[in-house]
Amino acid sequence: MALEPYKADFLRAALSGNALRFGTFSLKSGRQSPYFFNAGDFYRADLLEALAVAYAKTIHTSNVSFDVIFGPAYKGIPLATAATLALRPLDPERYNKIEYSFDRKEAKDHGEGGTIVGAPLKGRKVLVVDDVVSAGTAKREAIAKIRAQGGEVVGIVVAVDRQETLPDREGSAIGELRKEFGIPIIAILTLEDIIAGARDGFATEDDLKRIQEYKAKYGASD
Ligand SMILES: O=P(O)(O)OC[C@H]1O[C@H](OP(=O)(O)OP(=O)(O)O)[C@H](O)[C@@H]1O
Ligand SMILES: O=C(O)c1cc(=O)[nH]c(=O)[nH]1
């Protein structure tokens, strides 16, 4: 099946900015992967806009109801602010008053103080926006911080879901988070989408074959 247009646009931007690469890469897990995604590479205005629009369309399509977009420090911060801006034109009535916030890695003891900057979270429905999930540790910490402020986490949106098993486990990190918290965890692109894009000509035959072999070896079904 062909990729939805907003996914294809994102894939195009990711490849043009070298944020998504095909080749051979060592992962934190020690695996050798035929592809690698680095959200930090969307550092140019046109790429940032493409990234923001892709997050916004993914959030809009998910139909998750929320009040605040929360970006965990550090990489989540520009993602939350950019997604907030990019959502508005999609449905100004619905998104005109959505808010954003983020945390500090260290609490500040002067000025406004505290660890949360931006929208207050108490009693609010909070959507977490981040780059990727590896082990899920940073997401668990973000959920605990939001809950400690009285917020309710209603979902998590990331750029790429690699859909692969955790080392020595049956399931994926995203699958485990879904089960643990019972919330939707949505990616702009999944491994399945990357494979669909590769079939549509976004990668060479050889890269496609290597990605399919990787999926056969490490793919998770959750
Ligand atoms: O632990 P996980 O939920 O699987 O996520 C891995 C996270 O770790 C990294 O951020 P890190 O917390 O190192 O902070 P940074 O954004 O400052 O790099 C990375 O940006 C992911 O968001
Ligand atoms: O598993 C990883 O280390 C990893 C994979 C990937 O595609 N991108 C990333 O930032 N880390």
Automatic annotation (TrEMBL):
Signal peptide positions (record): none
One of the GO BP terms on file: 'de novo' UMP biosynthetic process
Keywords (A to Z) from UniProt: Glycosyltransferase, Pyrimidine biosynthesis, Transferase
Gene3D superfamilies in the record: 3.40.50.2020
The protein's annotated pathway: Pyrimidine metabolism; UMP biosynthesis via de novo pathway; UMP from orotate: step 1/2
Phosphoribosyltransferase domain segment(s): 48-170
A cellular component annotation (GO) from this entry: cytoplasm
Recorded catalytic activity of this chain's protein: orotidine 5'-phosphate + diphosphate = orotate + 5-phospho-alpha-D-ribose 1-diphosphate
EC number annotated for this UniProt entry: 2.4.2.10
SUPFAM superfamilies per the UniProt record, alphabetical: PRTase-like
InterPro entries: OPRT, Or_phspho_trans_dom, PRTase-like, PRTase_dom
Superkingdom of the organism of origin: Eukaryota
PANTHER family (UniProt xref): OROTATE PHOSPHORIBOSYLTRANSFERASE 1-RELATED
Function, in words: Catalyzes the transfer of a ribosyl phosphate group from 5-phosphoribose 1-diphosphate to orotate, leading to the formation of orotidine monophosphate (OMP).
Assembly mode: Homodimer.
UniProt-listed HAMAP family: PyrE
Stated name of the protein: Orotate phosphoribosyltransferase
Organism in which the protein naturally occurs: Pseudomassariella vexata
